[in-house]
């Protein structure tokens, strides 16, 4: 039996940026409405829902509450995706498999959060840290969530001798990209000097090494290929999961890179592609370091070489390998769970050729590396403008 | 709002403190006596942190609580300038550290008793104790030798 063709048929965003002025439920609903309108489909076409729950309005049956508010009371599939920042990539992976298996025909994936307007910037760090990390062995010592990334960054800098100026290019490049997107939360151009001179937050991470704090919602419609009027295709999917507590990681460099590489290799292998086939990259970026590690994990450069790799504007729109062309969580927006959902949405828009000033010409293959949990949970997707090849004998060696 | 949510919101309002449970009680009780004790697995002989009901290395069920030397070195650290919660506002900048204990296990803690900017990877440290209140004592580390 041949596999069903599955496509991403619609993408939608809701009130991305500062102070949405509504609850996360409303953002979920608005994003889903936008994605369905983009797909030319109706709520009555939806028979599957995966929600990426919000930090503040979370509920063990989040997806059921959301479905009920949408009037979706006879679904063939529903669940919540709870993999932090990688929830959305993981949910799309699962939605593709659900449609491919014939369990449901049209699955909506949505995520939304109100990190700014519900709890405010003062309490957001502790609320998020308390939700996702540990109240007994971590919080009493005062780390922010990004402090856990800072502990990792400290080792990368120590082992590879990276300078703050080299690393700063990640933030400078992503801000350049965001400056080309009318919807980005932070669009003013910044320099290397701005980054290395910005306020210390949790060293070696300064303010401009870190992602924004945002509100917003994001949604996608995954359906059978023949129903999609502007399809993007999922060519490859992979994932990898590991420790909860960062002190249990065997080491902070080789182990983390290899973990992410396991996810990326699975997705690239399924897609039958190599790095040379990739036109643009999306890397989950709670901090700039994870953009760098992701490039190494996907094989674009060798161990410890990513800081040198991004030099000279290579990852800016217009460079050899554009990365996070909307600006990513560093400059476009980081509303929690939707943060990396926005990476996928931008990837789809790039593949459709809808991106105006920041369009990467001839974009046919986008690699999206979702990561979460201080780089311990990963989901990589390879998205394509064209349907995947049916004959996989050259990949499997069959 | 569940119990965990209440703890999360309380932590955001003030200083988060541990809540011992049936597994971790010996660790926190010993801390109040200024003793660092960890579980050593009866089957594979490895020490583990944090307290758990099974050995994460061999899945052994039996373990004995054993005093540690308290000596270790800095594996990684971050100087935190932004207070996680209001209870930390008088304490920043503070040093969050991952310590390699000599017994072969790592833990998260703070480095105290020195300029935060003096902390380096590989720095020798030893455990000391922060008595937060009558019920809560935290293991923290200070420069050694």
- Proportion of residues in helical segments of chain A: 25-40%
What class would the helix/strand composition of chain A place it in? alpha/beta
The biggest chain-chain interface is: A-B, 37 and 45 residues
- Helix count of chain B equals 2
What's the number of extended β-strand segments of chain A? 11
Uncertain runs of chain A: 391-398
Draw up the topology in text.
The complex is a heterodimer of chains A (398) and B (145).
Chain A: E1 6-17, H1 24-39, E2 48-52, H2 62-69, E3 77-80, H3 87-100, E4 106-114, H4 120-132, H5 145-160, H6 164-179, H7 192-196, E5 200-203, E6 205-206, E7 215-224, E8 232-241, H8 254-271, E9 280-283, H9 288-297, H10 306-309, H11 328-331, H12 338-352, E10 365-372, E11 377-384, H13 393-396
Helix pairs in contact in A: 6-9, 8-9
Chain B: H1 3-13, H2 25-32, E1 37-41, E2 47-48, E3 63-67, E4 71-80, E5 94-101, E6 106-111, E7 124-133, E8 136-143
Report on the architecture of this protein.
The complex is a heterodimer of chains A (398) and B (145). Chain A has helices at 24-39, 62-69, 87-100, 120-132, 145-160, 164-179, 192-196, 254-271, 288-297, 306-309, 328-331, 338-352, 393-396, and strands at 6-17, 48-52, 77-80, 106-114, 200-203, 205-206, 215-224, 232-241, 280-283, 365-372, 377-384. In chain A, helix 2 links the parallel strand 2 and strand 3 (77-80). Chain A is an alpha/beta fold and 398 residues long. Chain A starts with 5 loop residues before the first strand and ends with a helix. In chain A, helix 6 (164-179) crosses helix 9 and helix 8 crosses helix 9 (288-297). Chain A contains 13 helices and 11 strands. In chain B, 13% of the residues lie in helices and 37% in strands. Chain B has helices at residues 3-13, 25-32; strands at 37-41, 47-48, 63-67, 71-80, 94-101, 106-111, 124-133, 136-143. In chain B, a hairpin with a 5-residue loop joins strand 1 (37-41) and strand 2 (47-48). Chain B starts with a helix and ends with a strand. The mean pLDDT of chain B is 93. Classes of the chains: A alpha/beta (398), B mainly beta (145). Chain A binds chain B through residues 119, 123, 125-127, 129-131, 135-144, 147, 150-152, 154-155, 158, 199-205, 245-248, 252, and chain B through 4, 7-9, 11-13, 15-20, 24, 49-50, 56, 75-85, 88, 91-94, 96, 98, 106-110, 121, 132, 136, 138, 140.
